[in-house]
Amino acid sequence: MELIGDLFINLSHWARGYLSEIALAIMATLMVIYGATLNRTIKRNINQLNFVLRTAIFILVCAIGYGASLVLLSPLLAQTLGHFNNETLSPVLLLIFILMGFLADRNN
Question: I need a labelling partner for 93 at 20 to 30 A (CA). Which of 12, 37, 79, 87 fits?
Answer without folding.
Answer: 37
